[in-house]
């Protein structure tokens, strides 16, 4: 904390943060613009937020995005958790390397390819593109992220907890639901949040796999921007940013509090 | 009446040919791939016994315990508990409970819920569970910590919770895997006696795994010394110490001096041994190892050897040398005497008096002497 604020340091920090956040700040500022022209400041106003809620197209897209996000994140969390359990528990089955490679491949797969191949599949099996197909595609996309998050928790999980539960008379199923699941729950919740966020801001895969009547918010915003940016879109994006920021802040505050509480508890325990 | 060691043991079902074994390992072998963790091992443990499995890490003692708990199945052989073959019975249906080395307390549950966990699995009625949990908390003196979570407890308190949880179901056998390994020395010594009292109070059979010989000696009725998946000796602490069955056991438990030699002469009660340098030793009851002309070792504990500046007039066995090293430890003094043939003998003397007459120092000439019944003859 005794770093001297040299001119060089200040400059690099200002430039760095400007590079990261100037566009976003600009977007937020212009969402409160009175003028209809996006780039000309015409005074402060919240009228675009009001008109946003009367824009049926945007509201529909928001509703679709929320449903796709919740359903796909939930299914992906179940599947990803199961994959993580298999990968950490059964270390010696045939084809484990192949299996883990296949689980994690979508992490590095270009989204265009994932989207295109899913589109080809849906066409081949004759699935009508729409809400269902976007949700399926998002499950495919986000499952591996959940698996990574949950697996990293499971690696440090003390297996003797499960042995102790079984030793005390709990069947393997009861052991899983009463011991394993509650202990790894924080990791599963972060996995779910990650999956939800990924689904929320996906544009590429949704464009490939969605159909009429199932336009997600990013798709809607993108298509409107092509017709010219309206202050309404700025307002929609600002709300999106606010939602994500509030989520992140709540999560980190909860985390910090838990950590502080744990440290206090441990100090108290040491004192007896 | 004479006996080995300084404790009279009235509880000794292992000496009673009619006693019914409670836990029986019959030619049990356990392999992990190519590695043999337990090799054709047979062992009998009696009801209400405090039994210790003692050995270095990797000797198979933990595997033995895990087979009893049901986490591993023997590759060959069988394990009987109270006459019932345990093969194929999963851990959650075995009438044994285990206290884990890491304690394995459930981090998301309070102390009382940890203790109640096993009782809930049994489907015990709620009022009975509450009563039993209160009883257990009292037993381990943690009444005021019932609502705490494990991370809010000190190491010693966690150990007590783990203990209470594992005895709450009144198992037929309690298995303890290095139960005191994580405690500091002082707490460990206190807890050793508490565990013994607890075992008496509950009347349970305890099987404890430990690598700490002092812990095993303090607590156990009998100790099985293990090495490389096999049992080297099963005996009371006094027998293990005073009458080790082999060089390995003699070395493993406590300190020991070994004289290599040959049996020169055997009579009804005594055996005369000629050492490598020609020194003569007379010992009582040579045992089976002491056949005529056999190559043997004579093992003798440091505290059985007397050190003096002059040759004791009445000593049967006395060897001359010089003081090589000496250490004053408070309760006792440890001498390293280099005999004239070059061998270094470790001897220790209890400092029963505050004032020592005629004390020794480095490089003094000194005599070591011992009684004919002070050591044992072992095969080489």
Automatic annotation (TrEMBL), chain A:
GO cellular component terms, semicolon-separated: plasma membrane
Assigned keywords, A-Z: Cell membrane, Membrane, Transmembrane, Transmembrane helix, Transport
Keyword Membrane appears in the UniProt entry: yes
A Pfam family this chain is assigned to: BPD_transp_1
Cellular compartments annotated: Cell membrane
Top-rank taxon: Bacteria
Name of the protein this chain belongs to: Putrescine ABC transporter permease PotI
UniProt keyword Aminoacyl-tRNA synthetase present: no
One GO-annotated biological process of the protein: transmembrane transport
Membrane topology: Multi-pass membrane protein
Protein family (similarity comment): Belongs to the binding-protein-dependent transport system permease family. CysTW subfamily.
Ranges that cross the membrane: 12-32, 64-85, 97-125, 131-155, 176-198, 233-254
């Amino acid at each position: 904390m005794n770093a001297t604020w040299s001119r060089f340091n200040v400059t690099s920090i200002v430039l760095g943060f400007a590079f990261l956040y100037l566009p976003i700040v600009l977007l937020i500022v212009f969402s409160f613009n009175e003028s209809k022209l996006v780039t000309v400041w015409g005074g402060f106003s919240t009228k675009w937020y009001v008109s946003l809620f009367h824009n049926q197209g945007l509201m529909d897209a928001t509703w679709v995005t929320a449903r796709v996000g919740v359903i796909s994140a939930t299914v992906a969390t179940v599947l990803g958790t199961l994959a993580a359990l298999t990968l950490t528990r059964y270390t010696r089955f045939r084809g484990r390397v192949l299996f883990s490679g296949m689980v994690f491949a979508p992490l590095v797969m270009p989204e265009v390819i994932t989207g295109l191949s899913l589109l080809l599949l849906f066409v081949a099996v004759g699935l009508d593109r729409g809400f269902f197909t976007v949700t399926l595609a998002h499950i495919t996309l986000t499952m591996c992220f959940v698996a990574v998050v949950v697996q990293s928790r499971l690696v440090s999980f003390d297996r003797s907890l499960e042995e102790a539960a079984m030793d005390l008379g709990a069947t393997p199923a009861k052991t899983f639901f009463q011991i394993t699941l509650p202990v790894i729950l924080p990791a599963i919740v972060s996995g779910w949040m990650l999956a939800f966020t990924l689904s929320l801001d996906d544009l590429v895969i949704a464009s490939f796999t969605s159909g009429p009547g199932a336009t997600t918010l990013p798709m809607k915003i993108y298509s409107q921007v092509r017709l010219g940016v309206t202050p309404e879109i700025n307002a929609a994006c600002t709300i999106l940013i606010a939602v994500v920021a509030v989520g992140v802040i709540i999560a980190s505050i909860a985390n910090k509090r838990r950590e502080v509480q744990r440290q206090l508890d441990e100090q108290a325990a040491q004192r007896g | 009446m004479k006996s080995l060691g300084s404790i009279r043991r009235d509880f000794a079902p292992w000496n009673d040919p009619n006693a019914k074994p409670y836990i029986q390992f019959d030619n049990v072998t356990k392999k992990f791939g190519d590695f043999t963790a337990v090799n054709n091992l047979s062992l009998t443990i009696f009801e209400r016994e405090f039994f210790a499995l003692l050995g270095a890490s990797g000797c198979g003692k933990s595997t033995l315990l895990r087979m009893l708990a049901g986490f591993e199945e023997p590759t060959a052989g069988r394990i009987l508990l109270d006459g019932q073959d345990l093969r194929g019975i999963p851990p959650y249906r075995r009438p044994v409970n285990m206290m884990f080395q890491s304690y394995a307390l459930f981090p998301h549950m309070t102390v009382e819920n940890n203790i109640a966990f096993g009782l809930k699995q049994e489907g015990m009625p709620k009022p009975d569970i509450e009563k039993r949990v209160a009883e257990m908390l009292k037993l381990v003196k943690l009444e005021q910590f019932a609502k705490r979570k494990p991370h809010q407890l000190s190491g010693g308190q966690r150990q007590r919770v783990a203990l209470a949880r594992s005895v709450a179901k009144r198992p037929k056998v309690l298995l303890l895997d290095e139960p005191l390994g994580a405690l500091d020395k002082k707490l460990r010594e206190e807890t050793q006696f508490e565990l013994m009292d607890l075992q008496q109070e509950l009347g349970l059979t305890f099987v404890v795994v430990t690598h700490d010989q002092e812990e095993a000696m303090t607590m156990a009725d009998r100790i099985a010394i293990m090495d490389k998946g096999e049992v080297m000796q099963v005996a009371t602490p006094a027998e293990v110490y005073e009458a080790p069955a082999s060089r390995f056991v003699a070395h493993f438990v406590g300190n020991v001096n070994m004289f290599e030699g040959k049996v020169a002469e055997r009579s009804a009660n005594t055996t005369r041994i000629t050492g490598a340098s020609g020194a003569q030793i007379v010992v009582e009851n040579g045992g089976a190892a002491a056949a005529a002309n056999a190559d043997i070792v004579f093992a003798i504990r440091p505290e059985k050897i007397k050190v003096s500046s002059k040759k004791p007039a009445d000593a049967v066995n006395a060897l001359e040398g010089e003081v090589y090293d000496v250490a004053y430890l408070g309760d006792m003094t440890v001498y390293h005497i280099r005999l004239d043939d070059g061998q270094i003998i470790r001897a220790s003397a209890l400092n029963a008096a505050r004032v020592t007459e005629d004390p020794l120092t480095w490089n003094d000439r000194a005599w070591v002497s011992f009684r004919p019944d002070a050591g044992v003859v072992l095969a080489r």
